[in-house]
Amino acid sequence: MIFSTQPRSTKTTTILVASIVFIVAFIGLVYNHLDSSFSLPSSVHHAPPPTPELLRFFFEKINKPSVKPDAHMYRAWDSFEHKLEVEKPQWTRPLGEKLCIIDMDSRLFNESGELFGPHPMTWDQSRHVHGLSLGFLNHWAYAKIHGYKYYYIDFEPYEDRRASWKKPPIISKILPHHDVCLFLDSDAVFYNLDLPFEWLMNYWDIRSDNNSLALALDPEHPNNHDEFNKTYLNTGFIVAQNNPKTYEIMREWQACAEDGGRHPDCVNFRFNRPGKPTDQGGFGTYIRYDFPDDIKELPCAEANGFPESRSGCQGTFIRHLWTGKKNWIKQVVGQQMPGSFLEIIHKQFLGERSQFFLTEEQLMKQNKI
């Protein structure tokens, strides 16, 4: 190529540079919008490292708590007003680590695209992103935003009943170290990351002097009724308060499926069958009737379900995506952690694993957590 010794005009140079930038940008757009069947090798990641600045931007700017615990009204994105109806809200200050969120599972989730897999999850390979793993990540991120204590418990399954019967002993072991603990199934997520849970407890009138546990009603359906034709409470979302009655309820619930227990027929709920939803069925058929004044029912429309289920339960605050878990959880969490944020946040989660991960054996041996 021969370069002219005559200087070019500034206008010509500007046009040339702009043309090159346009071509590079166009090629990048085409490359990024290739057919979805093409995926990058798992070893290639485009997200920047989880620097303190990026993490602060996500946790303290995008999703910072948007209302005080006793604010009169919450409006998500300045729409759809939700007002406190209680005259004197109990929860007036952030609880911080006095409130805990508990995740537990017996599965390893160590495959590619999963929570503890070899590489952080990335939307560059969205087909391989594991829905339930996103649910856990949502819980951790929500705890991080509001300063709550987070636990992930890796437990050994029972041999004679479904693993979900582990909820009572594990919750009972952690709760004494906090005022309130939340348990969520991996397919249940916090829909509004900016909304403090103290505000929701005021909204639902969950008080330390009027209940021990709070659970959401299931949708109205014949399979969701107990033998007395009352709708089950869904044990996939539990608000547990640290008081003596809570531990009494948990002991009764744990013993319900044992041979020779207070409710002999509760052994029929050891495993999941249509109309016999295991630990949920035992709780709903027996335990809630033993403690009618200590267990609060939360509206299904607000604390269960999701709009696409067409069940009448919208999951306004807690989305419980019992069906289509591979896709619907991605839709919710994908909006909360778009683009590179998924990979950045998952990297930070993995980097902090030692702060929250315990095996069941480790948990049960500890006096202090």
TrEMBL record:
Per the database record, which ranges form the Nucleotide-diphospho-sugar transferase domain?
162-286
- Report the transmembrane regions from the record: 12-31
- What keyword terms does UniProt attach to this protein? Glycosyltransferase, Membrane, Transferase, Transmembrane, Transmembrane helix
Give the GO cellular component terms, alphabetically: Golgi membrane
User: InterPro entries given for it?
Assistant: Glyco_trans_34 (IPR008630), Nucl-diP-sugar_transferase (IPR005069), Nucleotide-diphossugar_trans (IPR029044)
Q: Some GO term, biological process aspect, for this entry: which one?
A: protein N-linked glycosylation
Judging by the UniProt lineage, the source's domain of life is Eukaryota
What Pfam families does UniProt report for this protein, alphabetically?
Nucleotid_trans
Q: Which GO terms describe its molecular function?
A: glycosyltransferase activity
Q: Can the keyword DNA repair be found in this entry's annotation?
A: no
Similarity remark: Belongs to the glycosyltransferase 77 family. Belongs to the glycosyltransferase 34 family.
Protein name according to UniProt: Nucleotide-diphospho-sugar transferase domain-containing protein
The organism is: Stachybotrys chlorohalonatus (strain IBT 40285)
